[in-house]
């Protein structure tokens, strides 16, 4: 198992390098010039210097190498410095002064380091999208369990229909629909997510809750639809197995049979599916963040794309790719750990 | 003296061939009878047929030009609004109302459906061809298996929606210049959706081909000297048709949704070319006053995708021999 994990980990490095190379070369084809906004009165040699300061104007391969160095060598240094200086987790350690002013990945929009902006945006995304994933999982599992236990009952039929609907209705329709119903007609919730809102007492917490309900529900609906189908199918596979009959024959109560014996076995594939869905928390919420004006990572990517901010697009897409590869690995390893029948060697 | 043995002994009753009591049925007849039992799938199939016919024949039945501006008749409400709001601006000339430039909503919906369905079908067929091709090659030729499956894994670990957005924004200008604004966008979206959604098909097809390749009929075909290409065409492809059909329906659904999502984010077709996603996106800004402009295209997308998904569900049940006949 350990050798398998190490082998996969080592294999994922060339994969990620290749993905980053493909994305980089794709972005090299992009039209547009970061100097387009600079006034024409600026002399060309100054412009050339500004270009070099942004890391443009050299051959593509050199640029790619510099980007690699910045992302894999300089950014970790900055991160370690930050950890030992400002974070509450490792702040007690002595300050490491690893970073001393090398060029980091610079956004063309704001001329500030990309990673700083990403770190500013992550809390919003994690709060809204991460919470919606948790809510979705918590709703989906009981629905899946119960509809498998009472297969073909009214609850099962209704549940299957609703998951099918959740599968089919895209978030760019449910979002506006919820806004029309709950913000416009009923006036219960605000239609725009206010990121500057600070929670300091009970009333402001209520406001925060109100503004989170709709985006969380839109995303949770999608998660629920997919996960409860998996949960139901997996429970159905296990409910007819011999060991279930044995457990019942031993005189175990129905609750123990279903909630302990069957559930534990059915959770194995479902947990890997849950792990596989985690990268989508960061990347897949582009549309929902756009609808509810949450300024998270997805919204950052969209604005960077429209503003032709290539370093930002490159770094964000690469972060998404890293997350996907890492969570694929985690899902595979979890699968092997949870199910002793799986042998990778 | 022994008894003479009759030339042909009377068969033992229990062993006698009874002969089939009903005429043999073909596989597709079985599939069809199983498919008909799935109510959701039937409704979905009929709805898909209805939508397809509607967008194909609609322009001949409702002849208003979707792009004709009629500024005097702008911001009309749908005709059913008159039921509860007698002062609403309605007219039978525009049964579903008109938008802020006076373009007729019904003909826009029909034209938008044409675009969405065309993109959906084309992208689905492209991704099927790529997926089935790669799956068959990887399953049949051992040498290609490793590289092609690594390629599939690589594509599976790409962040799809960000890359779609990147690709569409990057290649929009050159393709528009060479194929015109609508044609270029059509080619771009179909290609981009096609080459980012073939991976599940390839995996399923490869798995099935790997199993089929070891069966006796393939061995028999090879032993009489059939060329690999002929084996694939004659023996393997017909046998992997059912998983391909199931993933075709899923592919159609995802292609329609992806196209609408791109249009919604503003990187899709040009603004004077209606698609369902584009109509929805344009209407979001004024949805407080005119909710129907969001709801109508949204319902069209959702019902079509729902129909396609139910169709896929029914097809999966009908094409699975373990479920069929139960």
Average pLDDT level of chain A: 82
Order of helices and strands of chain A: HHHHHHHHHHHH
The end-to-end span of chain A amounts to: 7 Å
Q: Let me know the average pLDDT of chain B.
A: 81
Helical fraction of chain A equals: over 70%
How far is the first residue's CA from the last residue's CA of chain B? 57 Å
Give a written overview of the molecule.
The complex is a heterodimer of chains A (345) and B (326). Chain A is mostly helical. Helix content of chain A is 73%, strand content 0%. Chain A is built from twelve helices and no strands. Chain A has helices at residues 2-28, 44-53, 60-85, 114-149, 154-168, 171-185, 202-239, 242-249, 254-283, 286-292, 297-306, 310-338. In chain A, helix 4 packs antiparallel against helix 5 and helix 6 (171-185) crosses helix 7 (202-239). The longest helix of chain A has 38 residues, at 202-239. The relative contact order of chain A is 0.13. The model of chain A has no long low-confidence stretch (mean pLDDT 82). Chain B is mainly alpha-helical. Chain B is flat. Chain B starts with 26 loop residues before the first helix and ends in a 7-residue tail after the last helix. The model of chain B has no long low-confidence stretch (mean pLDDT 81). Chain A: The chain crosses the membrane at residues 9-30, 125-149, 161-188, 208-225, 268-292, 312-338. Chain A: Belongs to the binding-protein-dependent transport system permease family.
């Amino acid at each position: 198992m350990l050798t398998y994990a190490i082998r996969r980990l080592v294999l994922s490095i060339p994969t990620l390098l290749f993905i980053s190379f493909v994305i980089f070369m794709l972005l090299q084809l992009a039209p547009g010039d970061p100097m387009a906004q600079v006034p024409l009165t600026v002399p060309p040699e100054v412009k050339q210097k500004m270009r070099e300061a942004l890391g443009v104007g050299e051959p593509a391969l050199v640029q790619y190498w510099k980007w690699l160095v910045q992302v894999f060598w300089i950014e970790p240094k900055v991160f370690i410095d930050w950890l030992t200086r400002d974070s509450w987790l490792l702040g007690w350690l002595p300050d490491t002064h690893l970073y001393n002013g090398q060029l980091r990945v610079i956004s063309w929009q704001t001329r500030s380091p990309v990673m700083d902006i990403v770190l500013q945006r992550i809390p919003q995304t994690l709060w809204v999208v991460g919470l919606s994933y948790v809510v979705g999982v918590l709703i989906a599992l009981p629905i899946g369990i119960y509809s498998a236990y009472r297969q073909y009952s009214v609850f099962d039929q209704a549940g299957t229909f609703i998951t099918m609907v959740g599968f089919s209705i895209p978030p760019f329709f449910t979002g506006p629909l919820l806004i029309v119903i709950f913000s416009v007609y009923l006036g219960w919730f605000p239609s725009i997510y206010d990121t500057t809102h600070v929670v300091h007492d009970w009333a402001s917490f209520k406001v925060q809750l109100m503004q989170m309900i709709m985006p969380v529900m839109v995303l949770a609906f999608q998660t629920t639809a997919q996960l409860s189908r998996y949960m139901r199918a997996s429970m159905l596979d296990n409910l007819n197995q011999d060991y279930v009959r044995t457990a019942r024959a031993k005189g175990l109560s129905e609750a123990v049979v279903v909630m302990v014996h069957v559930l534990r076995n059915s959770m194995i594939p479902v947990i890997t599916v849950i792990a596989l869905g985690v990268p989508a928390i960061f990347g897949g919420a582009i549309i929902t963040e756009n609808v509810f004006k949450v300024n998270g990572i997805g919204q950052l990517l969209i604005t960077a794309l429209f503003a032709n901010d290539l370093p930002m697009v490159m770094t964000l897409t690469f972060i998404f790719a890293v997350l996907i590869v890492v969570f694929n690995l985690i899902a595979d390893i979890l699968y092997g750990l949870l199910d002793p029948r799986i042998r990778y060697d | 003296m022994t008894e003479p043995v009759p030339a042909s002994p009377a068969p033992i009753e229990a062993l006698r061939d009874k002969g089939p009591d009903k005429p043999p049925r073909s596989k597709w007849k079985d599939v069809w009878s199983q498919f008909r039992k799935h109510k959701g799938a039937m409704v979905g199939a009929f709805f898909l047929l209805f939508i397809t016919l509607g967008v194909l024949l609609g322009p001949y039945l409702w002849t208003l030009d979707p792009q004709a501006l009629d500024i005097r008749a702008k911001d009309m409400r749908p005709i059913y609004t008159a039921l509860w709001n007698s002062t609403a601006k309605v007219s039978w000339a525009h049964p579903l109302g008109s938008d802020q430039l006076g373009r007729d909503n019904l003909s826009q919906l029909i034209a938008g459906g044409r675009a969405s369905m065309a993109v959906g079908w084309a992208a689905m067929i492209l991704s099927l061809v790529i997926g089935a091709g790669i799956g068959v090659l990887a399953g049949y030729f051992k040498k290609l298996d490793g590289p092609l499956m690594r390629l599939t894994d690589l594509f599976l670990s790409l962040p799809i929606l960000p890359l779609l957005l990147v690709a569409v924004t990057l290649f929009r200008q050159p393709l528009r210049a060479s194929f015109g604004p609508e044609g270029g966008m059509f080619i771009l979206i179909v290609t981009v959706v096609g080459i980012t959604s073939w991976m599940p098909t390839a995996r399923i097809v490869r798995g099935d081909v790997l199993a089929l390749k070891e069966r006796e009929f393939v061995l028999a075909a090879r032993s009489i000297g059939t060329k690999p290409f002929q084996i694939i065409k004659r023996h393997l492809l017909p046998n992997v048709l059912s998983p391909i059909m199931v993933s075709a329906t899923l592919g159609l659904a995802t292609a329609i949704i992806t196209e609408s999502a791109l249009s919604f984010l503003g990187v899709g077709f040009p603004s004077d070319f209606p698609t369902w996603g584009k109509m929805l996106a344009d209407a979001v800004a004024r949805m407080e006053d005119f909710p129907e402009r969001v709801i109508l295209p949204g319902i069209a997308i959702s019902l079509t995708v729902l129909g396609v998904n139910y169709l896929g569900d029914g097809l999966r049940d009908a094409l699975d021999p373990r479920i069929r006949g139960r």
